[in-house]
């Protein structure tokens, strides 16, 4: 049996990295005044080919070993429908991963060698930014294109006053509209 | 060394050096102390100072640490602060600017390094080491390997010095495959990781982070802005040097342990970098 699932991790308390990024975009970057809110989730994507009940085994590991999640400060959920599933409202999802995903490689090694996961083919780590723009910026047709262009401008670092969330010199990204 | 002697004689007006304290940095006071040991006044200056309050300084140092807790990426939040805009303007006037570790990350994220365009042209990516990830702390050797920066006033081509490193995101990279060879050719990689004998390598363990071409520091084309990952302020005095590192500096430290303890406060291998920086500041800019 082959499959793919994602573990998404957010904060129970205020996510200070998201708040700092939000304030920096609003106050320092071109176009930042159109940002309504910015939130963040970390994610782990698992691709596997195994006869084991992978999701059940991973859930048990998260509950018992606290390997990916600290229950005192994190909330988490597993998605089998991709990392975009389960996000409500209008906005853009910015998926950021490192081109050389050392954290993913280390997690795969740990799960395989220390926790006995069989058939694990790939683990990817990344950050999902949820970008919500001010009313009227995100719409259908041309407005939608303008919203996407603005979200990309906010996200992808090009110069000191343009882009914050991705450095394309070592990171990969994709932008997906929701709502 | 000759230029430094000139600077130390004080034949030009000496303006103090500002060490900029962003929230979360932790090396500002020892950096200021290293500057003072080079014979210059140094002041730790908070990041929210305005342009007029920074006019009196003759050079800026962005010290190491974890500005804004490394939120988003090391150095990126600080790089958007107005004070970095003031630093950019000072750099354009030729003022010497030194970024150490987190300070180097700030300069790269600000686009000041390598500074060939007004864009961000590179990154300091997470360390790449076989079998491990994350923060790495050790002593390394670096070789002077390019003449474009102000370091050439104090260090000769091929000089090898030991320095400590302590970072999780110290790998100089760019998605422009032609950039780093061009920087090397232009003398803009003034420090490269090497063995104790001076053999440069981009491979672990000589290179502790996987930097392209074994780059430990980059400078701009004019040579007045330098971003380096090793910490010279942690090697400014001989007592800071571990005798285990061997080589001339290790031997010197071992010999001193048998002698007068006051000699341990003599300049260490990192001191010469502050000498070079102060020399550049003494040459003066508008």
List keywords for this structure.
heterodimer; A: 179 residues; alpha+beta; Mth169, Chain: A; 6-stranded antiparallel sheet; 6 strands; 34% strand; B: 286 residues; alpha/beta; Rossmann fold; 9-stranded mixed sheet; two-stranded antiparallel sheet; disordered N terminus
Descriptive overview:
The complex is a heterodimer of chains A (179) and B (286). Chain A has 4 helices and 6 strands; from the N terminus they run βαβαββαβαβ. Chain A has a 6-stranded antiparallel beta sheet with strand order 3-1-2-5-4-6. Chain A has one domain: 2-Layer Sandwich (Mth169, Chain: A). Chain A is of the alpha+beta class and 179 residues long. The mean pLDDT of chain A is 92. Chain A has helices at 16-28, 54-65, 102-114, 142-155, and strands spanning 2-11, 35-49, 74-79, 91-98, 120-133, 171-178. Chain B has 286 residues and is of the alpha/beta class. Chain B has a single domain (2-283), classed as Class I glutamine amidotransferase (GATase) domain (Rossmann fold, 3-Layer(aba) Sandwich). Chain B has helices spanning 2-8, 28-37, 76-79, 82-92, 102-109, 179-185, 247-257, 271-283; strands at 17-21, 42-46, 59-62, 97-100, 123-125, 136-144, 160-167, 171-173, 191-194, 215-219, 225-228. In chain B, α1 (2-8) packs across α8. Chain B is globular, with a radius of gyration of 17 Å. In chain B, 56% of the residues are buried. Chain A binds chain B through residues 16-17, 20-21, 24, 28-29, 98, 100, 102-103, 106, 157-161, 164-165, 167-171, and chain B through 68-69, 71-73, 76-77, 79-81, 84-85, 88, 109-111, 118-123, 125-128, 132-133, 171, 173-175.
């Amino acid at each position: 049996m082959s499959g793919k699932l994602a573990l998404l991790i957010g904060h129970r308390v205020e996510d200070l990295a998201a708040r700092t990024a939000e304030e920096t975009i609003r106050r320092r970057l071109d176009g930042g005044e159109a940002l309504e809110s910015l939130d963040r989730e970390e994610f782990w994507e698992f691709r596997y080919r195994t006869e084991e009940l992978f999701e059940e085994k991973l859930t048990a590991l998260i509950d018992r070993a606290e390997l990916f999640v600290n229950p005192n400060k994190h909330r988490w959920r597993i998605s089998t429908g991709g990392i975009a599933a389960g996000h409500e409202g209008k906005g853009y999802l910015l998926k950021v991963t490192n081109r050389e995903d050392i954290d993913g490689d280390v997690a795969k090694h740990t799960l395989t060698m220390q926790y006995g996961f069989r058939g694990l083919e790939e683990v990817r780590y990344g950050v999902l930014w949820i970008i919500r723009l001010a009313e009227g910026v995100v719409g259908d047709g041309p407005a939608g294109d303008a919203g996407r262009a603005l979200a990309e401008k906010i996200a992808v670092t090009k110069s000191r006053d343009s882009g914050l969330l991705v450095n394309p010199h070592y990171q990969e990204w994709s932008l997906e509209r929701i709502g | 060394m000759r230029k430094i002697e000139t600077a130390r004689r004080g034949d030009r007006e000496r303006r103090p050096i500002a060490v900029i304290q962003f929230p979360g940095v932790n090396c500002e006071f020892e950096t200021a102390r290293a500057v003072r040991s080079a014979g210059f006044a140094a002041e730790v200056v908070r990041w929210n100072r305005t342009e007029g309050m920074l006019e009196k300084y003759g050079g800026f140092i962005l010290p190491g640490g974890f500005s804004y807790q490394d939120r988003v990426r090391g150095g990126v939040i600080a790089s958007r602060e107005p004070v970095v805009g003031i630093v950019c303007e000072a750099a354009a006037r030729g003022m010497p600017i030194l970024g150490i570790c987190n300070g180097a990350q700030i300069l790269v994220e600000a686009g000041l390094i390598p500074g060939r365009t007004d864009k961000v042209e590179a990154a300091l990516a997470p360390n790449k080491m076989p079998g491990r990830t994350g923060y790495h702390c050790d002593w390394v050797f670096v070789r002077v390997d390019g003449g474009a920066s102000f370091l050439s006033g104090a260090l000769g081509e091929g000089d090898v010095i030991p320095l400590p490193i302590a970072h999780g995101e110290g790998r100089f990279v760019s998605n422009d495959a032609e950039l780093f060879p061009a920087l090397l050719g232009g003398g803009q990689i003034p420090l490269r990781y090497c063995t104790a004998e001076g053999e440069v390598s981009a491979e672990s363990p000589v290179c502790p982070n996987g930097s392209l071409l074994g780059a430990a520091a980059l400078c701009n084309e004019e040579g007045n802005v330098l971003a380096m990952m090793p910490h010279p302020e942690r090697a400014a005095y001989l007592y800071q040097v571990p005798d285990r590192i061997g080589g001339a500096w290790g031997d010197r430290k071992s010999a001193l342990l048998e002698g007068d303890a006051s000699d341990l406060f003599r300049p260490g291998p990192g001191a010469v970098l502050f000498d070079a920086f102060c020399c550049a500041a003494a040459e003066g800019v508008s």
